[in-house]
Amino acid sequence: MDFLIDNIFNLLNKKNLDSRDYLSKFKSTDIIKLYEEAIDNEIGNGFSLGVDYNQIQETSFLSFDEKLLKAVYSHNKKNKVWVVSLHGYSSSKESSFISSYFLKKLGFNIFAFDFRNHGGSDHSPITLGVNEQKDLEFALSYLNNNFKVKKVILIGYSMGAHVLNRYALSSNFKKHKVVLGISDSTFLHLNEVLKTLLSSYVKIFNNKMSESIVKKLLEMYNKKHKIDVLEKSIISTVPLCKKTFPIMFLHSKKDVITSYKDSEKIFELRNQITSKDEIKIFETGEHIRTFIEHNMEYIDLVFKFIKRNK
Length: 310
Hints:
Layout: H1 2-23, H2 28-43, E1 56-62, E2 68-74, E3 81-86, H3 93-99, E4 109-113, H4 130-146, E5 151-157, H5 159-167, E6 178-184, H6 190-201, H7 207-225, H8 234-237, E7 247-252, H9 260-270, E8 278-282, H10 290-293, H11 295-308
Parallel strand pairs: 3-4, 3-5, 5-6, 6-7, 7-8
Antiparallel strand pairs: 1-2, 2-4
InterPro entries: AB_hydrolase_1, AB_hydrolase_fold, DNA-binding_regulatory, DUF829_TMEM53
Pfam family, one: Abhydrolase_1
Domain AB hydrolase-1: 82-210
């Protein structure tokens, strides 16, 4: 069993090592251009993100454990509002950068970075939330220390949305000048997400087998890597939280990777601490693709949410 768990752990992390090697062969702008063309073509009807490549720059910063994290940003020096975009598992900064670029229409600056063991960032065990939240906090510190920042809006996709929702319950958001969050296709229960990932890799696992393997995998994180990936869960933290920032939750009923019911549950839990959250559950749309399928409605919802919470 230990051999199996070690291999599953390596499998969960190796996918990102492979993508990192591939992505390292290209400039961020080259990858962003490919994403932009794909999005414009999929949405059609003359839609264009209109990316200004002259404004895009690359940078890097160190996280809490000296891991080097790579970032890309678009900066209009006349504006001091920043959007920090958080990608999902097995994705990269270029994906989250282009996914949040529609917010440039409001004049905002865009900052996206690779979580550990993703894109161009250093290798380190993926924790699907715990260490990634610390990566976010160091990204926000880097941003505030190196640019003139008036406000920060967070937008997260899948794992990035989960990190956002964890961070929103911390006490550091005022220090980092975070005022709003957009949570797209988040998850609540890490166990369920790991089971979904396992079944996507190994088709023969049934539900009972997956539960047993996930339990052993979590034990290995604790014993071998000294990481409690269930530390400070959203469910346990909400009752202890007194202040947070407003979040808009976006999800689809057709999402088979993360359940829309998780967004609903987090929204309900957060009613204890804020009345300013909003939620939209679309009837259709694959995982983190409601922006593509419901483009105009998606943008309108987000813009109005931001304007209501200036």
